[in-house]
Design goal:
single chain; mainly alpha; Rna Polymerase Sigma Factor, Chain: A; Arc Repressor Mutant, subunit A; 2 domains; about 0% strand
Length: about 200
């Protein structure tokens, strides 16, 4: 959803437009739950945190005109709520984490690598994403699955844009190596060494 459209929805919600609120909810709820779960490791808690955010959003809708970047605002709000949740549960060390959700790879390789329909490979890639360091995994998911810009992801996670770019590069490299081990050839073998990160990332669009 273009940022200009999100800003428009925020303006409409600010004056009490329930239809605009429903549109925002339907577009972001699942994405924000997935993002929250990367912190909480619990589906139920992630859903609760996300639901509470939307409730607060509606109750405090009069203040939404002050929000300059709505998409970043939503993700940062979820992150802060998750951090508060985790701090309040630090003493409960025996919380059973649910199994990591499967990463969504429908868009990977833009359809020109039909082997992605191979369930074994899909499972391998899911596991590869799940095994990435936390920050790297979040950067990859936000950019490649949620479609956020690098600058927005950097702002959401509180890191520099350069760090976000480096983390994305390393994530893509790791997944490419995973494919190489499975396929017997490296999917980046035709990519020139001096290509920029955005060119390398095309393998995973």
């Amino acid at each position: 959803m273009p940022e200009i459209e999100i800003v428009s929805l925020f303006k409409e919600i600010q004056v009490g437009d329930k239809t605009a609120f429903d549109m925002l909810f339907n577009h972001y709820y699942s994405k924000l739950v997935t993002f929250a779960k990367q912190y909480t490791k619990q589906q139920e808690s992630a859903e609760e945190i996300t639901s509470e955010l939307f409730v607060k959003l509606w109750l405090k809708r009069e203040t939404l005109l002050k929000v300059l970047h709505p998409e970043v605002y939503l993700y940062v709000a979820i992150k802060n709520s998750c951090l508060n949740f985790m701090r309040s549960h630090q003493k409960r060390k025996h919380v059973f984490a649910e199994k990591e959700e499967s990463a969504v790879f429908e868009g990977i390789c833009n359809g020109h690598m039909s082997f992605l329909e191979d369930k074994e490979l899909r499972k391998l890639l899911d596991e590869a994403v799940a095994s990435l360091p936390e920050q790297r995994r979040m950067v990859f998911k936000l950019i490649k699955e949620d479609g956020l810009k690098t600058a927005a992801v950097a702002q959401i996670l509180g890191i520099s844009k350069r760090t976000a770019e480096n983390q994305l590069y390393k994530a893509v490299k790791t997944l490419a190596e995973t494919l190489s081990d499975y396929l017997g050839y490296h999917p980046q073998s035709k990519v020139a060494r001096k290509q920029q990160l955005r060119d390398l990332s095309l393998l995973f669009l």
